[in-house]
Specification:
Layout lengths: L4 E4 L11 H15 L3 H10 L1 H5 L6 H12 L5 H18 L6 H10 L3 E6 L4 H5 L11 E4 H4 L6 H11 L6 E5 L5 H7 L3 E5 L20 E2 L4 H8 L1
Parallel strand pairs: 1-2, 1-4, 2-3, 4-5, 5-6
């Protein structure tokens, strides 16, 4: 058997990609409770993206405090707690499984494959993760904010393989091409395939996904065909 494990990206792969409108609406709500101008919060939020994705802060509250320091404001603890709750509620709403995601994960587990996840994300994702239908079906979930580095850093792929107790070359990697993730997986010896269910999207945060001339699938169910081919 060529593959012993299948590792997935999260948003755009197992879960739907979020819309900019939903994302910005949540930021506006956070700005209101923090008593800061929404445009200022939005800019500071994006300017601290790398830090929040690599766990400079220890938790969701720390992420909000980091952004507030950049804005040179000092909200009350109550305000910060409300902002954290808005952000968590938003993440819960957008963690919607793609069509067939749960069925494919279940089949892979039943057929003896180990399943993994690598996600570039902030602390809200690992907080909400145990509540999702994905969690019981993933053997090893690696979150950038928890480990301190993000895709395409080779270490994040190598860590996932170690947690799954397999070699990188025994892993199929499935992602939509954000963060140069497919090239990163290939570099460490994994077998990456592109899935882009929203190829026609005009969302600005999806425009710069990597151009991939390797294997591509059109649905998650095709993952089962790929592993069966070995």
């Amino acid at each position: 058997m060529k593959y012993l494990a299948v590792i997935f990206d999260l948003f755009g792969t197992l879960a739907d990609n979020f819309s900019s409108r939903q994302y910005y609406d949540a930021l506006v709500q956070m700005a209101l409770v923090l008593s800061v101008p929404p445009d200022d919060l939005r800019q500071a939020w994006f300017n601290t993206s790398r830090e929040r994705n690599t766990g400079v802060s220890q938790d969701c509250q720390g992420d909000i405090e980091l952004v507030c320091r950049r804005l040179e404001v000092q909200p009350e603890e109550r305000q910060i707690a409300l902002a954290v709750q808005i952000r968590l509620d938003y993440i819960r709403r957008v963690m919607t499984p793609q069509l067939g995601a749960i069925e494919v994960l279940s089949c892979l587990r039943e057929e003896g494959y180990r399943t993994g996840l690598i996600s570039d994300c902030t602390h809200e994702i690992p907080v909400v993760w145990p509540e999702t239908p994905f969690a019981p079906l993933i053997d090893a979930a690696v979150f950038s904010c928890s480990v301190g580095f993000r895709k395409p850093d080779p270490r994040i792929y190598q860590l996932a393989a170690r947690q799954l107790e397999v070699q990188p070359e025994q892993c199929l990697y499935v992602g939509d091409g954000g963060s140069q993730e497919l090239s990163g997986a290939l570099e460490v010896g994994m077998h990456p395939i592109l899935i882009r269910l929203d190829a026609d999207s005009t969302e600005p945060h999806l425009i710069n996904r990597e151009q991939w001339d390797g294997r591509m699938i059109l649905s998650l169910s095709e993952v089962l065909t790929v592993v069966a081919e070995g």
